[in-house]
C-alpha cells in the first residue's frame, strides 16, 4: 500500500510540475522507450501502471528495512534519492525527456523523489 500511494503521489506531483513548467519530468517518469520489445506508444495508464509496479515492491522493501532498523525518515529520504539517481540513465536513452544538463528539470525530479521518500516514511510511522 505504501509504495502504491507514494508512487501515485510522485506521479501526480511530477505531472503537475510538468504542466506548470513544461519540463518533461512526468514523461521521464513514465518513459519505457529503452525497454526492448515494448510498444512505443502505450497509453498513459499503462505506463503509469508499470511505474506503480516498480513503486509497490520498493515500498514493501522500504517498510521491511524500517521495521528492522528504524530510522524511517533517513531511509525514506535515502530511497527517494536513490530512486532519483535514475535521472542519468533515463535522460540518456530517450529524446522525449529533459536533457541531462537541464538543472531545473533535475531539481524537479529530485524534489518529486524526496516527496516519494517522505510519503513512505509517513506510512512507516503509521505501521508502528
Description:
The chain is built from 6 helices and no strands. It has 128 residues and is an all-alpha fold. It is globular. The longest helix is centred in the middle third of the chain and has 26 residues, at 44-69. The chain has one domain. The chain starts with a helix and ends with a helix.
Give a short summary of the structure:
This protein is an all-alpha fold and 128 residues long.
Mind sketching the topology for me?
Elements: H1 2-21, H2 25-30, H3 44-69, H4 72-84, H5 87-92, H6 103-126
Features:
128 residues, mainly alpha, 74% helix
Distance between the termini: 15 Å
Count of separate structural domains? 1
The largest pleated sheet is described as:
none
DSSP strand count: 0
What structural class is derived from the secondary structure elements? mainly alpha
How many helices does DSSP assign?
A: 6
- Shape field: globular
What is the CA-based Rg, rounded?
A: 15 Å
Secondary structure: helix percent: over 70%
Rounded mean pLDDT is 87
